[in-house]
Every structure is written in structure tokens, then in C-alpha cells.
Amino acid sequence: MSRVVVFGLGGAIAMTSSPSGGVVPALSAEDLVAAFPGWLRRASRSRSRSRTFGACPGASLSFEDVYALAEAVRQRFTDGADGVVITQGTDTIEETAFLLGLLHACSEPVVVTGAMRNPTLAGADDPANLLAAVQTAAGATARDLGALVVFADEIHAAARVRKTTPPAARATPGPLRGEEDHRAR
Ligand code: ASP
Fold it and tell me: What Gene Ontology molecular function terms does this protein carry (predicted)?
């Protein structure tokens, strides 16, 4: 079994209802991993340890936070981790992943993920994104690829990924197979 360490930084993936209304990024990395007992371990063939590094919106993360995170990640690899997953707010997911990629000098993968719909919403994407990220971090195929962003069942190089508005990013460019193209010609 691979050993994967999940670091939690906050963001929508860590949001839960606040007594004063709305949602706040209050779930720890331990909460995220513990929400799927057994399932995460079996589906990814890995043992996950978790460490909460912060609980803030992505836009509140500083360079110092990411430098400190990179050092903590390096330490986990020195201690024998096979992969690391970072969960954080998507507003700065590309910035964190890019900087982590520059600072990452090991073969083991660092995988950053998050969620567009927080766990209180119907269709929340945190379980699928967390599982895909842990599977990627635990697998041998992601070695020597540096930092990655795993989201919506896609694996992106940290240096190339960009957050876009989902409907635009996922717009169907032409007619579906078997359908007429009714657009103006
Ligand atoms: N505003 C949130 C954040 O970046 C949204 C998200 O996580 O997608 O922390």
C-alpha cells in the first residue's frame, strides 16, 4: 500500500455551514479523509494520513504559506511518503500548484485539488476530486511529473493549468453525435 499525506488548506472543499449563516472553510484535512472511511483506502490502494495546514479561502493564502507548505511536503517525502495531496480553494489553485512545482525537487508526486461545489451542496465534487487526487498521488505513473492539479477526473501539469468558469470551459463545441447542427451557417 502506498502512503499518501493529505494537507488541507481550506477553500470550498473544506466548507461547512456556519451558525451565523452561509458557509466557512472549517473542515480539517482529517475531516475530509475521515468522511470516507475505508472507501478512500480501498479505491486508491493507499493509506492516507492527513494534516491541516490552514482553513482559509484560496485568496487569503500568502507566498509565506506556500513556502511553509513546500517545506512540510519535502519533510513528508524525507519521512517516506509516496505522494502528497493538497486540498485548497480553487481561486488560487493554479498559483499554489505553480509555486509548489518550482519548489518541488523529489520524484514523488504533489497533487493539488479542491472543489467547485462545497460539501453542503447537491452534487458536491469533493469526494470525487479527493479520490482522484489520492489515486494519482498513490500511483507510480505520476512519479517525476512534478506538481499536478487533479480536478474533475483530469490530471493537469501545474505549470499549464488555469481555472475557468465551468460552463464556458465545458461548452460543447459542436453538435452531439447523431444530432443535426442547427446553428446558423
Ligand atoms: N472562494 C473559494 C476559494 O478559493 C472557492 C473555491 O474553493 O472554489 O477558497
Answer: asparaginase activity
CB of 58 closer than 6 angstroms to any ligand 1 atom: yes
Would you call 149 helix, strand, or coil by DSSP? strand
Ligand 1 touching residue 96 (CB < 6 A)? no
Q: Which domain holds residue 70?
A: 2-184
Instruction: Please work out whether the CB of residue 109 comes within 6 Å of at least one atom of ligand 1.
Output: no
Q: Which of 91, 120, 130, 149 to mutate to test the pocket of ligand 1 (most atoms within 8 A of CB)?
A: 91
Q: Are 50 and 29 in contact, with CB atoms under 8 Å apart? A: yes
How many structural domains is the chain composed of?
1
Helix (H) or strand (E) holding 110: strand 110-113
Ligand 1 center to residue 102 CA distance, Å? 23
* Residue among 13, 184, 170 nearest 91 (CA): 13
The pairing of strands 83-87 and 46-56 is unpaired
Question: 3-state class of 155 per DSSP?
Answer: strand
Report the CATH number at residue 37: 3.40.50.1170
pLDDT digits (tens, 9 = 90+) for 11-53: 999 999 999 999 999 999 999 999 887 888 888 888 888 888 8
Query: What is the rounded average pLDDT of the residues 108-118?
Result: 96
